[in-house]
Design a protein that fits this description.
129 residues, three-stranded antiparallel sheet, 35% helix, YuzC
C-alpha cells in the first residue's frame, strides 16, 4: 500500500486537539464572609504560650536543672521529669514532655482556664546523637 509522502490535501486528516465539551459554571467560587475572631483569639493565646516557652527555655539554660532533667529522662523516670517541669516558677500552662535518646520534646498547651484547643507550641531540643 502506498502512503503519500506529503499531505496533498492541505489540511490535517485528524484534529490535533480534540474538542473538549464543558458544562457552564460560575468561575467565581462563593466563599463565606471572612470572620477573624477565632484567628485573633488564637494569636492572642499563642503569644501567652510563647512567653511561657521563653520561661521554659530560660530554665533549661540552667546547667544544674538541665543535668537533673536529662538524668531523670535517661533513667526513664517520667514522674521526675514532669515534677521538674511543673516546678519551674512562673510556668502555668500545661506542658507535655516526651523524650528519646536523642531529643526532648515539649508541647505547651493553652492555659486550662481558656479551655480552647487553638494552638500548641512544640519545642524539640536535641541532646544526643
Amino acid at each position: 500500500m502506498y502512503y503519500p509522502r506529503y499531505n496533498y490535501y492541505g489540511h490535517q486528516r485528524f484534529q490535533k486537539h480534540p474538542i473538549v465539551y464543558s458544562y457552564p459554571f460560575s468561575s467565581l467560587r462563593q466563599y463565606p464572609p471572612v470572620d477573624i475572631t477565632i484567628f485573633s483569639q488564637s494569636v492572642k493565646t499563642f503569644r501567652v504560650i510563647m512567653k511561657q516557652g521563653e520561661l521554659l527555655l530560660d530554665k533549661l539554660g540552667d546547667t544544674a536543672f538541665s543535668h537533673k532533667l536529662m538524668d531523670a529522662a535517661q533513667r526513664g523516670n517520667q514522674a521526675e521529669v514532669d515534677r521538674l517541669i511543673k516546678g519551674i516558677g512562673g510556668l502555668n500552662v500545661p506542658v507535655q514532655v516526651r523524650y528519646t535518646p536523642s531529643a526532648i520534646i515539649f508541647n505547651l498547651q493553652p492555659p486550662a482556664e481558656e479551655s480552647t484547643d487553638c494552638c500548641t507550641l512544640t519545642v524539640t531540643l536535641k541532646w544526643g546523637q
